[in-house]
Design goal:
14 strands, alpha/beta, four-stranded antiparallel β-sheet, 3 domains, 14 helices, Alpha-Beta Plaits, single chain, Rossmann fold
Length: 423
Protein backbone atom coordinates (compact mmCIF):
# COMPACT_ATOMS: atom_id res chain seq x y z
CA UNK A 1 0.00 0.00 0.00
CA UNK A 2 1.41 3.40 -0.91
CA UNK A 3 0.77 6.95 0.20
CA UNK A 4 0.51 8.63 3.56
CA UNK A 5 -1.65 7.06 6.23
CA UNK A 6 -4.83 8.82 7.31
CA UNK A 7 -4.55 10.82 10.54
CA UNK A 8 -5.41 8.98 13.73
CA UNK A 9 -7.28 12.09 14.95
CA UNK A 10 -8.69 14.93 12.90
CA UNK A 11 -10.40 18.12 14.11
CA UNK A 12 -12.10 20.67 11.86
CA UNK A 13 -13.27 23.99 13.28
CA UNK A 14 -13.64 22.37 16.71
CA UNK A 15 -14.93 24.82 19.32
CA UNK A 16 -16.26 24.68 22.86
CA UNK A 17 -17.79 27.53 24.82
CA UNK A 18 -19.07 27.58 28.39
CA UNK A 19 -21.33 30.61 28.35
CA UNK A 20 -19.11 33.56 27.52
CA UNK A 21 -15.91 31.55 28.08
CA UNK A 22 -14.42 30.17 24.85
CA UNK A 23 -12.35 27.18 25.96
CA UNK A 24 -11.55 26.13 22.39
CA UNK A 25 -11.74 28.34 19.29
CA UNK A 26 -12.15 26.81 15.84
CA UNK A 27 -9.37 24.21 16.15
CA UNK A 28 -8.04 22.56 12.97
CA UNK A 29 -5.67 19.73 13.85
CA UNK A 30 -4.48 16.40 12.44
CA UNK A 31 -2.58 13.88 14.62
CA UNK A 32 -0.45 11.46 12.54
CA UNK A 33 -1.03 7.75 13.06
CA UNK A 34 1.67 6.11 15.17
CA UNK A 35 3.00 9.35 16.65
CA UNK A 36 3.41 10.55 20.21
CA UNK A 37 1.73 13.93 19.92
CA UNK A 38 2.24 16.60 22.56
CA UNK A 39 -0.34 19.23 23.49
CA UNK A 40 1.69 21.99 25.13
CA UNK A 41 0.30 25.05 26.82
CA UNK A 42 -0.29 26.79 30.13
CA UNK A 43 -3.19 25.98 32.44
CA UNK A 44 -6.41 27.14 30.82
CA UNK A 45 -5.06 26.80 27.27
CA UNK A 46 -7.76 24.31 26.23
CA UNK A 47 -5.81 21.05 26.45
CA UNK A 48 -8.20 19.23 28.81
CA UNK A 49 -11.23 20.55 26.92
CA UNK A 50 -9.85 19.14 23.66
CA UNK A 51 -9.17 15.73 25.18
CA UNK A 52 -12.63 15.53 26.71
CA UNK A 53 -14.21 16.42 23.39
CA UNK A 54 -12.21 13.62 21.77
CA UNK A 55 -13.41 11.11 24.39
CA UNK A 56 -17.03 12.13 23.96
CA UNK A 57 -17.27 13.28 27.58
CA UNK A 58 -18.08 16.77 26.27
CA UNK A 59 -19.93 17.87 23.13
CA UNK A 60 -18.54 20.61 20.90
CA UNK A 61 -20.25 23.94 20.42
CA UNK A 62 -19.16 23.87 16.78
CA UNK A 63 -16.98 21.85 14.43
CA UNK A 64 -16.24 18.15 14.12
CA UNK A 65 -13.71 15.60 15.34
CA UNK A 66 -12.97 12.05 14.26
CA UNK A 67 -10.79 9.18 15.47
CA UNK A 68 -9.49 6.77 12.85
CA UNK A 69 -11.93 8.27 10.37
CA UNK A 70 -15.00 7.67 12.56
CA UNK A 71 -16.91 10.62 14.10
CA UNK A 72 -16.87 10.90 17.89
CA UNK A 73 -19.88 9.01 19.21
CA UNK A 74 -21.10 6.28 21.58
CA UNK A 75 -18.61 3.72 20.21
CA UNK A 76 -15.58 5.99 20.62
CA UNK A 77 -14.79 4.69 24.12
CA UNK A 78 -14.04 1.21 22.79
CA UNK A 79 -11.47 2.55 20.33
CA UNK A 80 -9.49 4.76 22.72
CA UNK A 81 -7.71 4.60 26.04
CA UNK A 82 -8.02 7.57 28.39
CA UNK A 83 -6.19 8.75 31.50
CA UNK A 84 -7.70 11.75 33.25
CA UNK A 85 -5.58 14.54 34.71
CA UNK A 86 -6.55 13.51 38.25
CA UNK A 87 -7.50 9.82 38.12
CA UNK A 88 -9.46 8.40 41.06
CA UNK A 89 -9.43 4.65 41.53
CA UNK A 90 -11.25 2.51 44.09
CA UNK A 91 -8.74 2.51 46.98
CA UNK A 92 -9.91 -0.81 48.43
CA UNK A 93 -9.09 -2.72 45.23
CA UNK A 94 -5.66 -4.05 44.37
CA UNK A 95 -4.08 -2.94 41.12
CA UNK A 96 -4.80 -6.38 39.65
CA UNK A 97 -8.47 -6.23 40.65
CA UNK A 98 -8.81 -2.78 39.09
CA UNK A 99 -7.34 -4.03 35.81
CA UNK A 100 -9.75 -6.97 35.82
CA UNK A 101 -12.63 -4.55 36.30
CA UNK A 102 -11.38 -2.27 33.51
CA UNK A 103 -10.86 -5.14 31.09
CA UNK A 104 -14.30 -6.59 31.79
CA UNK A 105 -15.92 -3.22 31.08
CA UNK A 106 -14.42 -3.48 27.58
CA UNK A 107 -15.94 -6.94 27.13
CA UNK A 108 -12.81 -9.00 27.83
CA UNK A 109 -13.17 -12.29 29.71
CA UNK A 110 -11.38 -15.54 30.46
CA UNK A 111 -7.98 -16.13 28.88
CA UNK A 112 -8.30 -13.03 26.70
CA UNK A 113 -8.71 -10.88 29.83
CA UNK A 114 -5.77 -12.55 31.58
CA UNK A 115 -3.52 -12.05 28.56
CA UNK A 116 -4.60 -8.39 28.24
CA UNK A 117 -3.86 -7.75 31.93
CA UNK A 118 -0.43 -9.38 31.68
CA UNK A 119 0.38 -7.20 28.68
CA UNK A 120 -0.81 -4.02 30.42
CA UNK A 121 1.23 -4.84 33.54
CA UNK A 122 4.34 -5.34 31.43
CA UNK A 123 3.82 -2.10 29.47
CA UNK A 124 3.28 -0.02 32.61
CA UNK A 125 5.96 -1.72 34.71
CA UNK A 126 3.45 -2.69 37.43
CA UNK A 127 4.63 -6.20 38.24
CA UNK A 128 6.21 -5.33 41.60
CA UNK A 129 3.15 -3.75 43.18
CA UNK A 130 0.11 -4.86 41.15
CA UNK A 131 -1.02 -7.04 44.09
CA UNK A 132 -1.09 -4.13 46.56
CA UNK A 133 -4.19 -2.11 47.42
CA UNK A 134 -4.45 1.11 45.44
CA UNK A 135 -4.78 3.09 48.69
CA UNK A 136 -1.07 2.40 49.35
CA UNK A 137 0.17 3.49 45.90
CA UNK A 138 2.51 6.44 45.47
CA UNK A 139 1.75 9.09 42.85
CA UNK A 140 4.02 7.38 40.33
CA UNK A 141 2.42 3.99 40.96
CA UNK A 142 -1.07 5.47 40.45
CA UNK A 143 -0.05 6.99 37.13
CA UNK A 144 1.41 3.68 35.99
CA UNK A 145 -1.84 1.99 37.00
CA UNK A 146 -3.74 4.67 35.09
CA UNK A 147 -1.73 3.93 31.97
CA UNK A 148 -2.27 0.18 32.44
CA UNK A 149 -6.06 0.57 32.65
CA UNK A 150 -5.95 2.81 29.58
CA UNK A 151 -4.13 0.19 27.46
CA UNK A 152 -5.69 -3.01 28.82
CA UNK A 153 -8.06 -3.34 25.83
CA UNK A 154 -5.22 -2.61 23.35
CA UNK A 155 -6.62 0.62 21.88
CA UNK A 156 -5.13 2.22 18.78
CA UNK A 157 -5.38 5.73 20.26
CA UNK A 158 -4.40 6.85 23.77
CA UNK A 159 -5.39 10.20 25.30
CA UNK A 160 -3.36 11.10 28.39
CA UNK A 161 -4.14 14.34 30.23
CA UNK A 162 -1.02 15.63 32.04
CA UNK A 163 0.08 12.15 33.15
CA UNK A 164 3.23 13.39 34.92
CA UNK A 165 2.23 16.82 36.22
CA UNK A 166 1.99 15.84 39.90
CA UNK A 167 5.11 13.64 40.04
CA UNK A 168 8.61 14.31 41.32
CA UNK A 169 11.48 14.23 38.77
CA UNK A 170 12.22 10.52 39.33
CA UNK A 171 8.54 9.58 38.98
CA UNK A 172 8.20 11.70 35.85
CA UNK A 173 11.24 10.06 34.29
CA UNK A 174 9.80 6.58 34.90
CA UNK A 175 6.34 7.42 33.52
CA UNK A 176 7.80 9.15 30.46
CA UNK A 177 9.81 6.00 29.73
CA UNK A 178 6.55 4.05 29.80
CA UNK A 179 5.00 6.53 27.35
CA UNK A 180 7.96 6.16 24.99
CA UNK A 181 7.29 2.39 24.79
CA UNK A 182 3.71 3.01 23.68
CA UNK A 183 4.93 4.43 20.37
CA UNK A 184 5.29 0.86 19.09
CA UNK A 185 1.59 0.03 19.37
CA UNK A 186 -0.55 3.17 19.63
CA UNK A 187 -1.01 6.78 18.63
CA UNK A 188 -0.54 8.71 21.87
CA UNK A 189 -1.78 12.24 22.58
CA UNK A 190 -0.29 13.60 25.79
CA UNK A 191 -1.01 17.01 27.24
CA UNK A 192 1.48 18.85 29.42
CA UNK A 193 2.58 22.33 30.44
CA UNK A 194 6.21 21.21 30.81
CA UNK A 195 8.41 21.71 27.75
CA UNK A 196 11.02 19.16 28.89
CA UNK A 197 8.40 16.37 28.89
CA UNK A 198 7.52 17.15 25.26
CA UNK A 199 11.18 17.13 24.33
CA UNK A 200 11.78 13.71 25.90
CA UNK A 201 8.99 11.70 24.28
CA UNK A 202 7.01 13.54 21.59
CA UNK A 203 7.38 13.44 17.80
CA UNK A 204 5.09 16.37 17.06
CA UNK A 205 3.82 19.24 19.18
CA UNK A 206 0.83 21.57 19.11
CA UNK A 207 0.93 24.68 21.28
CA UNK A 208 -2.44 25.89 22.56
CA UNK A 209 -3.09 29.20 24.29
CA UNK A 210 -6.45 30.70 25.26
CA UNK A 211 -8.20 28.05 23.21
CA UNK A 212 -6.31 28.81 20.00
CA UNK A 213 -3.81 26.68 18.11
CA UNK A 214 -0.67 28.82 18.11
CA UNK A 215 1.61 26.48 16.19
CA UNK A 216 1.86 22.79 15.25
CA UNK A 217 4.98 21.11 13.90
CA UNK A 218 7.55 18.40 14.40
CA UNK A 219 9.19 18.69 17.81
CA UNK A 220 12.70 19.38 16.57
CA UNK A 221 11.48 22.06 14.15
CA UNK A 222 9.50 23.78 16.88
CA UNK A 223 12.41 23.84 19.33
CA UNK A 224 14.77 25.02 16.63
CA UNK A 225 12.40 27.85 15.81
CA UNK A 226 11.36 29.07 19.24
CA UNK A 227 13.80 27.81 21.90
CA UNK A 228 16.91 29.90 22.49
CA UNK A 229 20.15 27.88 22.34
CA UNK A 230 22.97 27.24 24.78
CA UNK A 231 26.50 26.64 23.54
CA UNK A 232 29.10 24.56 25.34
CA UNK A 233 32.81 25.01 24.63
CA UNK A 234 35.57 22.87 26.05
CA UNK A 235 39.17 24.04 25.63
CA UNK A 236 42.53 22.41 26.21
CA UNK A 237 45.54 24.37 27.39
CA UNK A 238 46.17 27.36 29.63
CA UNK A 239 43.46 29.14 31.63
CA UNK A 240 44.54 32.50 30.19
CA UNK A 241 42.89 31.61 26.87
CA UNK A 242 39.62 30.71 28.59
CA UNK A 243 39.83 33.97 30.58
CA UNK A 244 40.29 36.05 27.45
CA UNK A 245 37.54 34.21 25.57
CA UNK A 246 35.09 34.66 28.46
CA UNK A 247 35.70 38.43 28.52
CA UNK A 248 35.10 38.69 24.76
CA UNK A 249 31.91 36.60 24.89
CA UNK A 250 30.43 38.61 27.77
CA UNK A 251 30.83 41.77 25.71
CA UNK A 252 28.62 40.41 22.91
CA UNK A 253 24.98 41.66 22.92
CA UNK A 254 23.58 38.18 22.25
CA UNK A 255 25.33 36.60 25.29
CA UNK A 256 22.76 36.50 28.11
CA UNK A 257 24.80 34.41 30.56
CA UNK A 258 28.08 32.60 30.88
CA UNK A 259 29.25 29.94 33.32
CA UNK A 260 32.88 28.89 33.41
CA UNK A 261 34.40 25.90 35.17
CA UNK A 262 38.10 25.73 34.34
CA UNK A 263 38.34 25.31 30.59
CA UNK A 264 34.64 24.52 30.19
CA UNK A 265 32.32 27.41 29.18
CA UNK A 266 28.55 27.35 28.90
CA UNK A 267 27.02 30.33 27.10
CA UNK A 268 23.36 31.30 27.05
CA UNK A 269 22.21 33.38 24.10
CA UNK A 270 19.24 35.51 23.12
CA UNK A 271 18.65 33.40 20.02
CA UNK A 272 20.30 35.85 17.63
CA UNK A 273 21.10 34.25 14.27
CA UNK A 274 24.75 35.31 14.35
CA UNK A 275 25.64 33.87 17.76
CA UNK A 276 27.04 30.60 16.43
CA UNK A 277 29.03 32.29 13.66
CA UNK A 278 30.47 34.89 16.03
CA UNK A 279 31.43 32.27 18.60
CA UNK A 280 33.35 30.32 15.96
CA UNK A 281 35.04 33.52 14.79
CA UNK A 282 36.07 34.34 18.38
CA UNK A 283 37.55 30.87 18.79
CA UNK A 284 39.56 31.35 15.59
CA UNK A 285 40.68 34.91 16.44
CA UNK A 286 41.90 33.88 19.91
CA UNK A 287 43.51 30.71 18.54
CA UNK A 288 41.59 28.77 21.18
CA UNK A 289 42.44 25.03 21.31
CA UNK A 290 38.90 23.62 21.05
CA UNK A 291 38.19 20.08 22.21
CA UNK A 292 34.40 20.36 21.97
CA UNK A 293 31.90 22.87 20.55
CA UNK A 294 28.23 21.95 20.98
CA UNK A 295 24.90 23.66 20.61
CA UNK A 296 22.34 22.56 23.19
CA UNK A 297 18.64 23.10 23.10
CA UNK A 298 17.05 25.53 25.57
CA UNK A 299 18.34 28.48 27.54
CA UNK A 300 16.52 30.04 30.46
CA UNK A 301 18.05 33.45 31.05
CA UNK A 302 19.65 33.87 34.45
CA UNK A 303 18.30 36.82 36.37
CA UNK A 304 14.64 36.08 35.69
CA UNK A 305 12.39 35.93 38.73
CA UNK A 306 10.97 32.57 39.72
CA UNK A 307 7.19 32.30 39.49
CA UNK A 308 5.69 33.26 42.85
CA UNK A 309 4.31 29.79 43.59
CA UNK A 310 7.70 28.14 43.00
CA UNK A 311 9.46 30.79 45.08
CA UNK A 312 7.04 30.13 47.95
CA UNK A 313 7.64 26.37 47.80
CA UNK A 314 11.38 26.88 47.61
CA UNK A 315 11.43 29.21 50.62
CA UNK A 316 9.20 26.86 52.65
CA UNK A 317 11.69 24.01 52.24
CA UNK A 318 14.58 26.29 53.12
CA UNK A 319 12.82 27.59 56.24
CA UNK A 320 12.52 24.01 57.45
CA UNK A 321 16.32 23.99 57.52
CA UNK A 322 16.45 27.28 59.42
CA UNK A 323 17.26 29.33 56.31
CA UNK A 324 15.53 32.17 54.56
CA UNK A 325 15.87 32.44 50.80
CA UNK A 326 14.60 35.56 49.05
CA UNK A 327 13.60 38.96 50.36
CA UNK A 328 10.53 39.27 52.59
CA UNK A 329 8.19 42.22 52.13
CA UNK A 330 5.90 43.95 54.66
CA UNK A 331 3.17 41.33 54.18
CA UNK A 332 5.62 38.60 55.19
CA UNK A 333 5.58 36.94 51.78
CA UNK A 334 8.56 35.70 49.87
CA UNK A 335 9.53 38.13 47.15
CA UNK A 336 10.99 37.26 43.76
CA UNK A 337 13.91 34.87 43.91
CA UNK A 338 16.47 35.36 41.17
CA UNK A 339 17.04 32.32 38.97
CA UNK A 340 20.77 33.05 39.05
CA UNK A 341 20.70 32.83 42.86
CA UNK A 342 18.92 29.50 42.82
CA UNK A 343 21.29 28.06 40.28
CA UNK A 344 24.33 29.22 42.24
CA UNK A 345 23.18 26.98 45.09
CA UNK A 346 22.57 24.05 42.76
CA UNK A 347 25.05 24.35 39.89
CA UNK A 348 25.01 22.11 36.87
CA UNK A 349 21.87 20.08 37.58
CA UNK A 350 20.19 20.64 34.22
CA UNK A 351 21.92 20.09 30.86
CA UNK A 352 20.07 22.83 28.97
CA UNK A 353 20.57 25.77 31.32
CA UNK A 354 23.21 28.46 31.10
CA UNK A 355 23.95 29.80 34.59
CA UNK A 356 24.95 33.32 35.56
CA UNK A 357 28.44 33.53 37.04
CA UNK A 358 27.55 36.37 39.42
CA UNK A 359 28.27 35.05 42.92
CA UNK A 360 25.66 34.97 45.65
CA UNK A 361 27.76 35.56 48.77
CA UNK A 362 27.22 33.05 51.52
CA UNK A 363 24.22 31.25 50.03
CA UNK A 364 25.87 27.96 49.11
CA UNK A 365 27.95 27.97 52.32
CA UNK A 366 24.88 28.67 54.42
CA UNK A 367 23.02 25.87 52.65
CA UNK A 368 25.73 23.36 53.56
CA UNK A 369 26.18 24.60 57.13
CA UNK A 370 22.47 24.51 57.96
CA UNK A 371 22.24 20.85 57.00
CA UNK A 372 23.81 19.47 60.15
CA UNK A 373 24.23 15.85 59.04
CA UNK A 374 25.10 14.28 55.68
CA UNK A 375 21.65 12.63 55.62
CA UNK A 376 19.87 15.93 56.25
CA UNK A 377 22.00 17.58 53.58
CA UNK A 378 21.10 14.91 51.01
CA UNK A 379 17.38 15.24 51.77
CA UNK A 380 17.52 19.03 51.57
CA UNK A 381 19.52 18.96 48.37
CA UNK A 382 17.07 16.54 46.73
CA UNK A 383 14.10 18.73 47.69
CA UNK A 384 15.79 21.91 46.52
CA UNK A 385 16.90 20.27 43.28
CA UNK A 386 13.35 19.18 42.48
CA UNK A 387 12.06 22.69 43.09
CA UNK A 388 14.77 24.29 40.99
CA UNK A 389 14.10 21.88 38.13
CA UNK A 390 10.40 22.73 38.28
CA UNK A 391 11.24 26.43 38.12
CA UNK A 392 13.62 25.92 35.21
CA UNK A 393 11.02 24.03 33.21
CA UNK A 394 8.32 26.62 33.91
CA UNK A 395 10.59 29.37 32.61
CA UNK A 396 11.73 27.39 29.57
CA UNK A 397 8.13 26.67 28.61
CA UNK A 398 7.16 30.30 29.13
CA UNK A 399 9.98 31.45 26.86
CA UNK A 400 8.91 29.14 24.01
CA UNK A 401 5.21 29.94 24.45
CA UNK A 402 5.83 33.68 24.40
CA UNK A 403 7.90 33.45 21.21
CA UNK A 404 5.29 31.25 19.49
CA UNK A 405 2.45 33.50 20.66
CA UNK A 406 4.15 36.64 19.33
CA UNK A 407 4.66 35.05 15.91
CA UNK A 408 1.05 33.82 15.82
CA UNK A 409 -0.24 37.30 16.61
CA UNK A 410 1.95 38.80 13.88
CA UNK A 411 0.56 36.29 11.36
CA UNK A 412 -2.99 36.95 12.53
CA UNK A 413 -2.57 40.73 12.26
CA UNK A 414 -1.04 40.38 8.80
CA UNK A 415 -3.85 38.05 7.71
CA UNK A 416 -6.51 40.39 9.10
CA UNK A 417 -5.10 43.13 6.90
CA UNK A 418 -5.59 40.86 3.90
CA UNK A 419 -9.02 39.64 4.97
CA UNK A 420 -8.16 36.00 5.75
CA UNK A 421 -7.41 33.80 8.77
CA UNK A 422 -3.81 33.01 9.85
CA UNK A 423 -2.25 29.80 8.50
Amino acid sequence: MTGARSPAIECRGLAKAYGDVHALRGLDLAVPTGSIFGLLGPNGAGKTTLLRLLTGLRRPTAGTASIQGEPIGPDTARRIGYLDQDPRFYPWLSGLELLRLSGSLYGLAGSALSAAIDRAIEVAGLAEFVGRRVAGYSGGMRQRLGIAQAVVHDPHVLLLDEPVSSLDPAGRHDVLEVLAKLRRTSTVVVSTHILADVERVCDRVAILDHGELIVESEKDALLERYATPVYEIELSGADEIADRLAVLIRARPWATSLMRTGSHLRIGTSGADGASTELLALLADTRSPVERFERLRVCVSAGEALPAAVAERWAAHMRELGQHVGERNDEDRVGSTDMGNVMQILPGIHPYIAISDDPVPGHSTAFRDQAATPEAHERAFAAAKALALAAIEVLAERDVLERARREFEQRRDAAAGKGRTPA
